[in-house]
Amino acid sequence: MSEELNQEVVEEQKPSEGNPDIGPLIAESKKYRSRAQAAEEELARIKAAQKEAEEAKLAEQGEYKTLLEQKEEELKALSAKATEWDNFQATRREQILEGWSDDQKENFGDLPLTKLEALNKQFKLEQGGGKAPQDRPGTSKTGQKYNGHSSLKEWAIKDKESFRKRNGDYPG
Fold this sequence. Notes:
Blueprint: H1 2-12, H2 22-98, H3 102-108, H4 113-126, H5 152-158, H6 160-167
C-alpha cells in the first residue's frame, strides 16, 4: 500500500513542461520510498525475531513445566514416606509407653522417640531385664541375683568387668 502512495506522489509531481524545479523533488521522493521499503523490511525482520523468541520462551517454559511436574511427583512420594514415618513413630511411642506407669508417662512421654527408647532400655535394666541368660535371668552362677548387687544398674556400675562378661556393654 505504501508503494501505491509513493507512486501517486511521484505521478503528481511529474515534471511539467513549464516547471523545471520538480526534478529534485522526484529524486527526493524516490529516496523516501526506498527508506520506507527498508523500514518495512526491518519491521518484518523484527516481528519474525519476536515470534521466534516467543516460541523459544514457550518451549523453555514447557521444560519448566516438565520439571515442575517431576518435582510435584517427588514431593508426593516424600510426603507419603513422611506420613509412614510419623505413623511408625506414633505406634512405637505407644508401644513403649504401654508398659510404663502413669508417672513415667507424664514425666517422660513428650520426649523424642530416641530418648524414649533409651529410657525404656534403662527402665528394663533397672527392673531386671536386659541381656541376662534365659536359664538364670539376673542371677549369678552361685544363684545370687545381680551377681550380689541390689540391681542390674548397680552391678553394671560397681563391677563393670563381670557385668560385661555376662551381659555385654551397659547402655547407660
